[in-house]
Amino acid sequence: MVSSRAALLYGPGQDFKIETVEIDAPRAGEVLIDVRACGLCHSDEHARTGDMPMPHYPMICGHEGAGEVVEVGPGVTSVRPGDHVAMSFVPSCGNCALCRSGRAFLCDDGRKLFDLGMMTDGRVAHRIGDTPVARYTQLGAFAERQLLAETSVVKVDPSVPWTVAALVSCGVATGFGSAVNRAEVKPGDSVAVLGLGGIGVSAVQGARIAGARRIFAVDPVEFKREQALRLGATHAFASIDEAADEIRRLTHGAMCESVICAVSVMRSELLEPALGLTGKDGTCVVTAVAPFQQAQADVNLFMLAMANKQIRGCLYGSQSPRVAIPKLLGLYQAGILKIDELVTRTYTLDQVNDGYADLEAGRILRGAIVF
């Protein structure tokens, strides 16, 4: 049994509260991690606002983490004490049909992500006194130490900075893959990215690296537009309406081969304008998380069919974390993919609420807690 300070959420609409949590020692298939860094991802904010209802409280949030292995349980073979790892909210069991077919981002163990107990054996391994504590996506990386399933960690090069290893485990991989894998951006394409947070600017970079000729970045926050231009966007606009006329002019009416929706919260009324930027035979990728209750979307079905357009959902950039994380870190080490530049400010664990206030106000591109 070990103790760890952690940032807990006790219910929607509340601030994070720092508490000391008691954590089991690792059992079969589990690893104990000293957390070194964790990104302030908007997905955790979805849990706090209630857009993504959680089944169990209190809950340790944080899922974009990296750390050092302290101890491993029986049967663990992929890592050992001293190894550096990135955490993956997408587990990879390696045994289900989806993992075996190369689609580990849809691993069947994903059904356990919001269970109260451990993914390995179902037991409650985190407590405050007699109160069970859940972990967001079975990770709970807003903590000094954390107990995880081996299937939720990916070994990384120890020379990679902790914040980089953390960010690549979710936001960077998701945005980059949205452009490269799901939108299938090709050299010479015109691409629009809607929303320029951590996922959006990573989609901009993915489109740039894939060879897009024009990358239209759209966000109401001027600071984020400036960062997108610095990271590869060719044009930036404050709104879809503003972007539409210029895109139409620059493409001679053809519009974009692909549009990537990476806004903070996906709403029904945003889909049709995104499709309006999508050209004939084009692809509109929806990566942004919508409120759980958002059961309908406004779409002109006639134009969807007649223009041969596609709408594609995207989870984790439609790629296996065990493939994506080392690949993206290789691009970072080669100087091709910019990740250090994404982090506007770092915070202590006690400043987690300040970090999310800065994110909501548009004062940072990405923030990270460092331990």
TrEMBL record:
Keywords: Metal-binding, NAD, Oxidoreductase, Zinc. One of its GO terms (biological process) is formaldehyde catabolic process. It holds the Pfam family ADH_zinc_N. It comes from the Bacteria. InterPro entries: ADH-like_C, ADH-like_N, ADH_Zn_actinomycetes, ADH_Zn_CS, ER, GroES-like_sf, NAD(P)-bd_dom_sf. SMART domains: PKS_ER (SM00829). Its cofactor is Zn(2+). GO terms for molecular function: S-(hydroxymethyl)glutathione dehydrogenase [NAD(P)+] activity; zinc ion binding. Residues 13-371 form the Enoyl reductase (ER) domain. This is Alcohol dehydrogenase GroES domain protein.
